[in-house]
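Researcher: Structure for this, please.
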Amino acid sequence: MSDYDFDLFVIGAGSGGVRASRVAAAHGAKVAVAEEYRVGGTCVIRGCVPKKLLIYGAHFAEDLKDARRFGWNVPDCGFEWTTLRDNVLADVDRLEGLYKNTLDSHKVELIADRATIVGPHKVKLGSGREVSAKYILIATGAWPLIPEVEGAEHGVTSNEVFHLEECPKRIVIVGGGYIANEFAGIFHQFGSHVTIVNRSATLLRGYDEQIRDRLLQISTMKGINFRFHAEMEKIEKNEDGTLCVRFKNGDPVACDLLVFATGRKPNVEGLGLENVGVELNEKGAIKVDDYSRTNVESIYAVGDVTDRLQLTPVAIREGHAFADTVFGDNPRTVDYHCVPSAVFSHPPLAGVGLTEAQAKNKLGTVKVYTSDFRPMKNVLAGRDERALYKMVVDATTNRVVGLHMIGPDAPEILQAAAVAVKAGLTKQEFDDTVALHPSMAEELVLLK
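Model: Predicted structure, token format:
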């Protein structure tokens, strides 16, 4: 008999925690997972999944207009936010049920309660019950940051956007990252007047400069407003419920909804890490080694609560690798090289590997190949919107070290192309592949 109640106790039933629980249980471990909110975590409940469904809904705005150019007698159509909202939330419920079924089928005990660490092998639940475990895994994810500005309580974050009572006529989105740009595209297509407010002049830091400049150009052409170098002074709420966002420089902006998309912080508050001396880094994230172990031998952490890559597929891999290492007698780590990422803006962009600037800094001499084209559908639809594909090549080895693109279905196309970049293929090997015509993806093997 074990000296502990469980072999593994997981705090947080998001993507990383659920994967770790399931795989550890499959390896024969007795596992419990505590979740104080809903099973599925940020991605399933209030992140990438419901957001992608909103993006699908937003695409119909232009698709319905374009359909007329393709011979369809489409009448002027109205949009009903509550219908889409309720259908999306219903699908979130469905997915949460599947996650619960996965845990149940692997005999993982799901505890709907908050858990606090009180010892290297012990947690205390909100009910007062104390549970012991040989290993504890922290998988509590990250939480939206709210800037310290007077009146910030009048704004919302991406967590609340999915539950709005109505679609706002005017929306101000604070931030320049992927969340800000994605929701800007969504609500613009729903008919809202959108203003993005950013402290700096840089959108989507970390993505290739040409690609993000193209998104700014297209977004501006569509009618999305941008305020750069804008530092908020205070937010005032008027008697009619509308808001006034005031800045230290420039005119105020009136809106019906203010969304903070100013980054996310590791969700460590109230976990009891100080009780056992788990170390955090300067950003407040849990410090872990290559095997996701903290400085406390029995405590591990995976996903956004650590300061690695805040991406759902990465958290899933970390959770799986942890379970294989600790319970599967198969020590292994996660390879963070060449991880593809995407922004589901309107249009979407995606990238893998080094940007042009990163490649020049790291390799010195690089070759850059681009294709700047108008997709066939846009041509017939009468839209001037252009796609841009970019390949960054090591001039010494001819190896493709980066691929970046913006245009329709860019993330879908990049996922397959990322395999080639990860495998270290050369520009010549791309060129040797016959084009699939007519397609947008064929540009990748025709780059000059």
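Researcher: Any notable elements?
Model: Residues 152-262 form a domain with the FAD/NAD(P)-binding domain fold (CATH 3.50.50.60). DSSP finds 13 helices and 22 strands in the chain.
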